[in-house]
Design a protein that fits this description.
Blueprint lengths: L11 E3 L4 E7 L5 H12 L7 E4 L3 E7 L7 E7 L35 E4 L4 E6 L3 H10 L6
Length: 145
């Protein structure tokens, strides 16, 4: 589904960095030291840093520090968007980044990870799926800056 309006805040941008998603057990002893280091590294850089704590785990989205596996690229919705009124739904709704079966005819991505902030949303896609995600969004009427 195309963007709801041609407003500049709904344009998309592919961030230049490569990201990683780290998962820690909830009772990880050195988590504070490791996360504090990642925050200090990220604080002066543009991009994205996200920390999520649940009853089961601690997850960190941060800029990748090496060429390891499971690397992500990030598509940012420019924003700002009205936090009270926005709706970003994945796979068959407002923003369609949809899954395709192996050998499927439609472009798409197989995995994505969504991070929300007060002002905007960030969609992480595997490095190898970035071109397909951008193509899918452009075909659907989304504009990139």
């Amino acid at each position: 589904m195309p963007p709801p309006a041609g407003h500049p805040s709904l344009c998309l941008e592919v961030l230049p960095q490569t990201f990683q998603v780290k998962q820690y057990p909830r009772d990880h002893v050195d988590i504070a030291k490791e996360v504090l280091h990642q925050v200090n590294v990220a604080i002066d850089k543009p991009g994205l840093f996200s920390l999520t704590h649940t009853a089961e785990e601690i997850s960190v989205v941060c800029e990748a520090t090496d060429d390891g596996e499971d690397r992500w690229r990030c598509i940012k919705i420019m924003g700002p968007m009205d936090f009270e009124r926005r709706s970003l739904r994945i796979d068959g709704c407002d923003l369609q980044l949809y899954y395709t079966a192996e050998g499927g005819e439609d472009p798409g991505v197989r995995y994505l990870h969504l991070v929300r902030s007060w002002n905007t949303d960030y969609i992480l896609v595997p490095v190898e799926s970035l071109d397909d995600a951008v193509t899918t969004l452009r075909l659907d009427g989304w504009q990139f800056i």
